[in-house]
Amino acid sequence: MPPRKTTLRKKRVIGIDPGLAHTGFGVVDSVAGRLSLVSYGVIETPSTESHEVRLLAIYNRLLAVLDEFRPDEAEIEALYFSRNSSSALAVAEAKGVITLCVTQQGIPLFEYTPNQIKSSVTGTSGADKETVEQYVKILLNLQVEPKPDHAADALAGAITHIHTTGGL
Question: Which residues of 76-95 are buried (b: 16+ CB within 10 A; e: fewer)?
Fold first, then answer.
């Protein structure tokens, strides 16, 4: 009897770090428990544009990213509200647009807090941004830390989701 061929299943996850000025995204594949980088970047909207045009730009650019990379699942970072309520509201609106965009594409969306992400990627919830970037570099076997930090945070979120759900 010839040996049975086994096909390894791939799980593709997009992590999203929401923001009005900078929305980070990172796409990671998991195959047989191994992580690999697919792509990452930042959707930027200029402050010279009106608020509603910036939100529409986030929607349209994220839709293009989703169309290009076709993730199986998505992760979004939970909002951490600071003292600046006006920027917190803008980020919340961006998160709403992102949630709408992902949901309209039929992609399951999962949410993790910043502390959950830091803990999953580095082993401690008190890690700073540089430490998160270093661990993302190690976990994805990259030559350099991913920049800017919004993209690194999105990659860390995707890694967290894969770790949390057991990858494949």
Answer: bbeeeeeeeeeeeebbebbb
Q: Which residues participate in catalysis according to the annotation?
A: 17, 77, 150
How far apart, in whole angstroms, are the C-alpha atoms of residue 38 and residue 9?
16
Distance, in Å, from the CA atom of 152 to the CA atom of 8, rounded to the nearest integer, reads 27
pLDDT in tens, 10-52: 999 999 999 999 999 999 999 988 999 999 999 999 999 999 9
The answer to whether residues 78 and 111 touch, using CB atoms and an 8 Å cutoff, is yes
Residues 6 or more apart whose CB falls under 8 angstroms from that of 125 comprise 115, 116, 118, 119
pTM of the model: 0.91
Which residue matches tokens 């965009």?
101
CB 117 within 8 A of CB 157: yes
* Average of per-residue pLDDT across 74-96: 82
- pLDDT confidence of residue 32: 87
107 CB neighbour count, 10 Å cutoff: 16
The beta-strand segments (E) located in 100-140 are 109-112
Tokens 């997009």 appear where?
Answer: 14
